[in-house]
Description:
With 166 residues, the chain is α/β, with parallel strands linked by helices. It contains eight helices and seven strands; from the N terminus they run E-E-H-H-H-E-E-E-H-E-H-H-E-H-H.
Amino acid sequence: MNRRFLTHTFEPVFDENSEILILGTFPSVKSREINFYYGHPQNRFWTVLSKILKTDLPESTDEKKRFLLSNRIAVWDVIKSCEISNSADSSIKNVVANDFTEILTRAKIKTLYANGKTAERLYNKYVKEKTGRDIVALPSTSPANASFGVERLVNEWKIIGKDLEI
């Protein structure tokens, strides 16, 4: 396995009005290439959120940032740096977690959501003790989660719309 030590290179997306925080594990190869979240064309993250929020699908990085902020959604990853092989969450070793102090202090985060079980497990292992906050696991929007189609993901993720009172 060709595992390399990598550091997360882009900032979280949030502002003082953000009410929910969605956490992934660590950026995929495609996300690292474009320097933004959920960059793999088969990742259903943007499709699922746009369906729940009944908006057009954001295309550019700027549109995605505006989409998140206008809907009071913050996005980040649990991991600041780790050893990883390509985009495989199962290969992650030697984790250094992000520090959530600033985002949880500056924003009005009511609920934390994990985009997948691995994000939930890593949050609980490396971050929960420091934040004292629980996280709600949602099924991963990754193309690796082939057992969930878009409609099934939308059905599971619609709790976010309820949380945002949409």
